[in-house]
UniProtKB/TrEMBL annotation:
Bias (Gly residues) ranges: 104-114
Biased composition (Low complexity): 76-86
Name of the protein: VWA domain-containing protein
Superkingdom of this protein's organism: Bacteria
Chain coiled-coil ranges: none
Species, as recorded: Caenimonas sedimenti
Disordered as annotated region, ranges: 76-115
Length: 470
């Protein structure tokens, strides 16, 4: 039973449903209570313990139906000799068979020989679909088919499952029949049966690859996307990138929400507690807690959306607005050569649509950081105080214009923190028309940031530092 549940958890992960350790424990307890015989009851019990959101419910239902589908071993083409196939068990018996198969051993070193010790050739020639299906399921478990990741492994697992079912013995029978020249009809039947076995096992492996191989392949691709320079991300990957950003944001939210929950009670103040309870002989009648107030940061995001860095701005804004549980107030500004407040766009539209609209409306070329800093001084400086974190994203390439670094100095003196994220490598700072080395002294943090991993680290640090210094 446990092995079947673990395989089902793998299938759920392959369908992009996260299954925590606590959820796995709850699912195992629920399964022990309801048993395997009633399909709908089991489906309801597992769904109640494993599904956390409404969209996940539909995915869970599809995955459950696919996973607990009895993989019937197809009959041979019409016109071929052999007995009619055995009846397929009713759905609830199929479910019980699938679950119990995890605890059954193989039929010995010669391959799975079935409960009655029947040879593979006998089952194939008799068309015993039910027994062949059970043997194929058991062979798949014996060879670890749930570990399949890539389509290049299909041939390997197809061969291993056939061998576990008794392919070697079948091949010996075919070789022996060929030696007996008076039995050409049996040779033809055995060869057709062997080809049929190969086709059925290959199709079975392909179905399992689509169930188990999706998650590892997607995880590899996600890891690749998270380390790629954001400017190199193809548009076709944007939807996946948005989903990755939401996942990372949820992870950050959970991590820092735990810090906030700890803050509600704080840590035990031993010295004060012992002093207050000294009169009671050390018995702790009254406890005192030491806590640090954790404030949600106010963030002003100022993003260069010119052609060279607009992709970075897209994902920074998406990140920030996905952290609404932890960031109390985000004001966002975009610029090429003038500062434009785009906060209203994000207030009016879903974050993905808002990002697209800002990129289309504000993007351009001819960046003028000096003019933008003058706009900050005129429009924004009076709003900056010791609770405000200013987050600037840009390459600081000013097209030989006036830098106005003195405004950065003023901003540095007023804000709680000034963080500058530059997509360019540090070795490029100050080269050509880059003013980064003139701006960097007036930043609390100035760092290279050109991938999702960099963004995650920076925002994690922003939230962590805010709580530590509050």
């Amino acid at each position: 039973m446990q092995a079947t549940l673990e395989d089902f958890f793998k299938a759920l992960r392959g369908s992009d449903i996260e299954v925590s350790l606590n959820a796995q424990i709850d699912a195992a307890r629920a399964t022990a209570l309801v048993g395997w015989r009633e399909r709908e009851l089991l489906k309801s019990a597992l769904g109640a313990t494993l599904v956390k959101t409404v969209p996940d419910r539909a995915i869970f239902d599809r995955t459950f139906d696919r996973f607990f589908h009895f993989d019937t071993f197809g009959t041979r083409p019409a016109g071929q000799p052999g007995a009619a196939p055995a009846a397929v068990p009713p759905p609830d018996e199929q479910l019980q068979s699938n679950a119990e198969g995890s605890s059954q051993g193989s039929g010995g070193p010669g391959g799975c020989q079935g409960s009655a010790g029947q040879a593979l050739s006998q089952l194939l020639l008799a068309g015993d679909s039910a027994t062949l299906s059970r043997r194929m399921q058991q062979a798949a478990r014996d060879v670890g088919l749930t570990d399949i990741w890539f389509f290049t492994q299909k041939g390997y697992y197809t061969q291993k499952i056939q061998q576990a079912m008794g392919l070697d013995l079948l091949d010996r029978e075919i070789t022996e029949a060929r030696r007996q020249t008076q039995t050409p009809q049996r040779v033809a039947e055995l060869e057709r049966a062997r080809k049929h076995l190969f086709n059925e096992v290959r199709n079975f492996v392909e179905r399992k690859l689509s169930m188990y191989g999706t998650a590892p392949t997607r995880e590899l691709h996600d890891d690749f996307l998270q380390t790629q320079k954001l400017s190199n991300i193809d548009r076709r990957d944007f939807a996946r990138m948005h989903e990755i950003v939401r996942k990372i944001a949820r992870r950050l939210a959970e991590r820092h929400a735990r810090r906030k929950r700890r803050e509600q009670r704080g840590q035990l103040d031993f010295r004060r507690t012992i002093r207050a309870n000294a009169a009671y002989g050390g018995v702790m009648f009254e406890t005192f807690w030491r806590s640090t107030k954790i404030e949600r940061p106010r963030v002003v995001a100022i993003c260069d959306v010119s052609g060279s860095v607009r992709q970075y701005a897209r994902f920074l804004l998406l990140f920030l607005y996905s952290l609404d549980e932890l960031v109390s107030d985000v004001q966002s500004f975009a610029f090429t050569n003038h500062l434009i407040d785009v906060s209203a766009t994000f207030a009016a539209l879903p974050v993905e649509q808002a990002v697209d609209k800002v990129m289309q409306a504000v993007g351009g070329s001819g960046t003028d950081y000096g003019q933008v800093l003058e706009d900050i001084d005129e429009q924004l400086m009076h709003r900056i105080d010791r609770r405000t974190t200013v987050l600037i994203l840009g390459d600081a390439r000013n097209n030989r214009g006036e830098a106005h670094a003195e405004i950065m100095k003023t901003l540095y003196g007023r804000a709680r923190r000034v963080i500058w994220l530059n997509p360019e490598p540090v070795s490029f700072w100050g080269l050509g028309d880059s003013e980064m080395k003139r701006y960097a002294p007036y930043c609390h943090i100035a760092r290279e940031c050109n991938s999702l991993r960099h963004l995650e680290r920076t925002l994690d640090e922003l939230l962590r530092t805010n709580s530590a210094s509050a």
